[in-house]
Amino acid sequence: MKNKIALVVGAGDNLGSAICKCFSNEGFIVVAARRNGDKLVTLQKEIETSGGVFYGYSLDARKENDVIEFIKNIEKNIGPIDAAIYNIGGNIKFGITETTSQKYYKTWEMAAFGAFLIGREVANYMINRESGTIIFTGATASVRGADGFAAFSGAKHAKRSLAQSMARELGPKGIHVAHVVIDGAIDTPWIKELFQDYYNEKKAIDGLMNPNDIAGNYLWLYKQPRNAWTHEIDLRPWVEKW
């Protein structure tokens, strides 16, 4: 897999970084992007120290022309993208009367529109090769709209529908499209800081999702033979109610 490239858009400090390291450990060249690419320095050092190859970029996935040039640059100057993961979230909570049009639109741009742009541009190249894997990160909000999450659930539902449509269109062309529902709290410093009691309680009973364990499922999806592809999986800790 030394020449295979994994693209991770939304390579944040937790799940996004874990996905990058997981694919790097399998020999992939990793191309990572986030809004502020300067924040990828630590991840780059970790991967390169372990012998991996890493390229980090700043990218606003909501900007169509930037996305087009970004994917074109990777394909031309680094190599063909074999796995593309869209991991941008956009989780906000506001009551419906407090949800401004700006908040709703921005959340949709981040979670759904950016996914469309990345998916479309990567597919343009994968179709010609008749191979590739595209994975979208979903959430509980992808399948259930909760109180106070009108913007987030609407955007996540849209991303899930996008993934389903792309899977039906691109599957027969040799491209594996998958959607991963993350149904539970991930073990992150953010959760620990904001919900300390909840964090301590769940951590003590292995009730938080480990980013590295989640990332392993993305690699598993990539490795599936085309005669037995999974389109959607949902992941949750054993104590999570659903």
Describe what you observe in this structure:
With 242 residues, the protein is α/β, with parallel strands linked by helices. The chain has one domain (5-235): NAD(P)-binding Rossmann-like Domain (Rossmann fold), CATH 3.40.50.720. The protein has 8 helices and 7 strands. Strands 3-2-1-4-5-6-7 form a 7-stranded parallel beta sheet, sandwiched between helices. The longest helix has 29 residues, at 101-129. The protein is globular and about 45 Å long. 43% of the residues are buried. The mean pLDDT is 95.
Features:
single chain; 242 residues; alpha/beta; Rossmann fold
Quick synopsis:
This protein has 242 residues and is α/β, with parallel strands linked by helices.
Topology record:
Blueprint: E1 5-9, H1 15-25, E2 29-34, H2 41-49, E3 53-58, H3 64-78, E4 81-86, H4 101-129, E5 133-139, H5 150-170, E6 176-182, H6 189-194, H7 196-204, H8 211-223, E7 232-235
Parallel strand pairs: 1-2, 1-4, 2-3, 4-5, 5-6, 6-7
Helix pairs in contact: 1-8, 3-4, 4-5
